[in-house]
Amino acid sequence: MKIFILSMTLCLSGTAAFAQEQAKQTEPAKPATKAQQLNNEKEELKAEYELILQKQKNKLAELEIELNRLGAENKLSTEKQQAELRQIKAEIEKFSTQNKLAEEKLKVMTAAQNEELAKISIENRLAAEINRKALLEISKQIEKLKLENELKMEKNKQEDLALAREKAEMDIELKRMELKERRLKYEKAELDARMDKLNSDLVLRTKKEEWKKESNTEPFYLDKPFQSGQLVISDRRVSLNGPILRETADYVTERIHYFNNISTAPIFMVIDYSPGGSVMSGYRIVKAMQASKAPVHVVVKSFAASMAAIITTLADKSYVYPNAVLLHHQMSTINWGNMTQMKEQLELAREWERRLMDPVSKKLGMDKESFRKKMYEKNSDGDWEEFGDKAVDYKWATTVVDRIEETGFVKNPDYDNPYPSKPLRLDLEEKLNEKGERYAVLPRLEPFDFYFIYNPDKYYK
Q1: What DSSP element (H or E) covers 132?
Q2: Alpha carbon distance 188, 178 (integer Å)
Q3: What is the fold of 226-453?
Q4: pLDDT at residue number 326
Q5: 417-424 contacts, C-beta under 8 A, 24 or more apart
Q6: What is the overall mean pLDDT for the chain?
């Protein structure tokens, strides 16, 4: 501590001298001689030397202080280490004493364990003898089992040989069965081949028959079916034959509607023979023709009279063979009842005549009375019939046709005919009267209906 104070005093005194020297240097300089300048430089060098010397002394003093401090710390550390060593020695002595005590206890325990070990050793030797004896027994049993296994193996070999013989016999039998099965399959294949050939022949024969049933051609659908004197008819064909009754109108109009729903290609209504019939049913046919989007061409091949002739005349397009016959006459009917009823029926008949004959007369270019008068000029009965070529001149039909090609008949008619427009023919029951004359009874008419039918020999009753 004294060294530290001394060092501090020296440091302060050196600092004061240095400050005085600096103050002298800062005073205003006076002109000096060269000797004074050298003296001043000497003084400065001396001051610098003293300053450096003082700094070294200060540094040395600091080092001495640090050395003293480190010595004191080392001494303190040494004392602490000695105290710790004393404590560690005390611990070592304590543990040594405990270890000695533990060794004594271990000796006591070891003595007991040695006795136990000796006992266990004796027991192990006894157990080893017992095990040796048991092993001998087991060895005997193993030898016995080995002999028994060898005996069983010999028996199994015999059984295996027997099974092998049986398996070989079964394999031989199986091969025989397979050979027999192959023979049966071969025979069946031969029979199947023969049956296939027979079936093929039958199918070929059937196909040939089917081929013969059809013309194997397609119908022609022409927008202009009449060209160069020939009319081409497709399968859009409706037959109108026999008396025109309610069933006839149903048949014809349904087919006109059906063909319209398919396309607008021409429809052909073919009349082979029709004496006419119900005005109501005929009028339904006329209206169906007029409402049809597809043009309806009426074709008369043989005979069309009364209502059938009106249907032909009112058609936009109608074709007739030159030798076909068309007949127009007045509507006739049979009435009964009192005078008032007969008058009413007559008025209704006249109204029907007006509704049917006026359009016909207009198309012929004459009035109804002129048309009626013309009927009686041609025939005293008023039944005006004309051949087809003359009927065209009178505008009863539009065109004479020499050739008609029926392309719609693609099935042989001698077989089942699936033709969609198979002709409808209502066969009336034919009877004999007291004189032996034949006649047929027409169906009862609906209310307000009349028969417009050609009946010169009173065949229809």
Answers
A1: helix 34-213
A2: 15
A3: 2-enoyl-CoA Hydratase; Chain A, domain 1 (3.90.226)
A4: 94
A5: 419/235, 420/235, 420/255, 421/235, 421/237, 421/238, 421/239, 421/255, 422/239, 423/239, 423/241, 423/272, 424/239, 424/241, 424/242, 424/247, 424/248, 424/251
A6: 81
| Pair 384, 372: CB distance under 8 Å | no
Whole-angstrom distance, CA of residue 85 vs CA of residue 107: 32
pTM over 0.90: no
CB atoms within 10 A of CB 352: 19
What CA–CA distance (Å, rounded) separates 394 from 398? Answer: 9
To which residue do tokens 């109804």 refer?
Answer: 368
The total of other beta-carbon atoms located within 10 Å of residue 6's CB is 13
Q: Which amino acid is residue 111, in one-letter code?
A: A
Separation CA 268–CA 231 (nearest Å): 10
Q: What would the two tokens of residue 330 be?
A: 């007045």
* Paired tokens of 69: 């401090």
Ramachandran sector of residue 276 (left: φ over 0; alpha: ψ -120 to 50; beta: rest):
left
The arithmetic mean of pLDDT across residues 350-378, rounded, is 87
Is residue 333 within 8 A of residue 349, CB to CB? The reply is yes
Specify the amino acid at residue 399: T
Contacts of residue 111, defined as CB under 8 A and 6 or more positions apart, other chains included, come to none
Q: Is 186 helix (H, G, I), strand (E, B) or coil?
A: helix
Residue 239's pLDDT is 93
Winning range, highest mean pLDDT, from 5-9, 317-321, 417-421: 317-321
- Residue 207: C-alpha distances to residues 51, 214, 298, 344 (Å): 146, 11, 37, 64
Strand partners, 387: 325
Quick one: which H or E segment has residue 453?
strand 451-453
* 8 A C-beta contact, residue 397 and residue 388: yes
Q: How far is CA 125 from CA 119, 165, 239, in A?
A: 10, 58, 129
For the cut 80, the answer to whether the pLDDT of residue 448 exceeds it is: no
Q: 310-361 pLDDT, tens per residue?
A: 999 999 999 999 999 999 988 776 666 778 877 887 787 788 788 888 898 8
